[in-house]
């Protein structure tokens, strides 16, 4: 199916802002149809007005499993099928592991991991029936390696990565593709209105100071390029399981994984002896 095939239908969660809105805009510009979900559907009123029936907007909190299944049914009714499902809804949570409350931890995982799980479960019967489809899970560079004060955010993304790797193997026989998109830092609202904060303890101020100093010179990328990359991804006949985005991320991730391999090798004798 080519980009300009108007029968292609996207479901994008968290479409009201950030990457989600960019994905919706890019898909519409390419001639596709989109079902966008958002906690505040009115945020997409301008796009609805501009695209003559090709964008349907549904309210949704992805943490509500029953609501997810009902909304997916409505999404299928809107255009008759689903071809590309983008699990984008999510937010950041900053705080040392000790600082995070139970409520914050559960809310983070409910949205960033369980929300994607519920959407995935809800769309699979339709995709299996069609014998086609592409599930795009918006992960993060934080799904590949964790940094101090972002432990619970990383936990949700690592869970998403593990679930999706197994999912890809399970659904390949049905003609369904799965890709984890792993962006680095981009100029969206993720670090502002999409970020929640723990109550900071003075004990961890040296950790935060070091972290902020190390990240002071990191430039944020253009989120429009992420949308362009996702369009190319879903147009591909053989998309990857993982797509890391951001030039600045590659060297750091390669170095991180090389260190992991070196550490495994350093302790290999002990590990093999068990």
Key terms for this structure?
274 residues, Rossmann fold, seven-stranded parallel sheet, two-stranded parallel ribbon, 16% strand, disordered N terminus
Short description:
The chain is 48% helix and 16% strand.
How would the blueprint of this fold be written?
Layout (H helix, E strand, L loop, with lengths): L8 E4 L5 H12 L3 E6 L6 H6 L4 E5 L5 H15 L4 E4 L4 E3 L7 H29 L2 E6 L12 H21 L4 E8 L11 E3 L7 H11 L7 H13 L6 E4 L1 H20 L1 H5 L2
Parallel strand pairs: 1-2, 1-4, 2-3, 4-6, 5-8, 6-7, 7-9
Helix pairs in contact: 1-7, 3-4, 4-5
Please characterize this protein's 3D structure.
The protein is an alpha/beta fold. It has one domain: NAD(P)-binding Rossmann-like Domain (Rossmann fold). 48% of the residues lie in helices and 16% in strands. It has 9 helices and 9 strands. The strands form 2 sheets. Strands 3-2-1-4-6-7-9 form a 7-stranded parallel beta sheet, with helices on both faces. A two-stranded parallel sheet has the order 5-8. Strand 1, helix 1 and strand 2 form a beta-alpha-beta unit. Helix 4 (102-130) runs parallel beside helix 5 (151-171). It is globular, with a radius of gyration of 19 Å. The termini are far apart. The model is unreliable at 1-5 (pLDDT under 50).
**Which architecture would the CATH scheme give at its second level?**
3-Layer(aba) Sandwich
Strand order of the largest sheet: 3-2-1-4-6-7-9
Calculate the mean pLDDT score and round it: 92
CATH superfamily: NAD(P)-binding Rossmann-like Domain
Annotated CATH topology = Rossmann fold
Low-confidence regions: 1-5
Helix and strand run: EHEHEHEEHEHEEHHEHH
């Amino acid at each position: 199916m080519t980009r300009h095939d108007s029968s292609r239908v996207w479901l994008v969660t968290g479409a009201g802002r950030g990457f989600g809105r960019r994905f919706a805009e890019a898909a519409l510009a390419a001639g596709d149809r989109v079902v966008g979900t958002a906690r505040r559907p009115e945020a997409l009123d301008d796009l609805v007005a501009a695209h003559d029936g090709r964008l349907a907007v549904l309210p949704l909190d992805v943490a509500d499993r029953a609501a997810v299944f009902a909304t997916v049914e409505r999404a299928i009714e809107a255009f008759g099928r689903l071809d590309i499902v983008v699990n984008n809804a999510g937010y950041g949570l900053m705080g040392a592991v000790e600082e995070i409350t139970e409520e914050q931890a559960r809310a983070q995982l409910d949205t960033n991991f369980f929300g994607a799980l519920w959407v995935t479960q809800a769309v699979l019967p339709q995709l299996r029936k069609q014998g086609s489809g592409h599930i795009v899970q918006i992960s993060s560079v934080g799904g590949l390696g964790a940094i101090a004060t972002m432990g619970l955010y990383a936990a949700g993304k690592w869970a998403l990565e593990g679930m999706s790797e197994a999912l890809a193997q399970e659904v390949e026989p049905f003609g369904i593709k799965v890709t984890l998109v792993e962006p680095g830092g981009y100029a969206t609202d993720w670090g502002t209105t999409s970020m929640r904060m723990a109550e900071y303890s003075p004990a961890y101020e040296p950790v935060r100071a070091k972290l902020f100093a190390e990240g002071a010179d990191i430039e944020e990328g253009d989120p429009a390029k992420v949308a362009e990359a996702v369009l190319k991804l879903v147009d591909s006949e053989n998309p990857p399981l993982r797509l890391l985005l951001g030039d600045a991320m590659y060297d750091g991730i390669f170095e991180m994984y090389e260190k992991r391999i070196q550490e495994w090798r350093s302790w290999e004798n002990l590990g093999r002896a068990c």
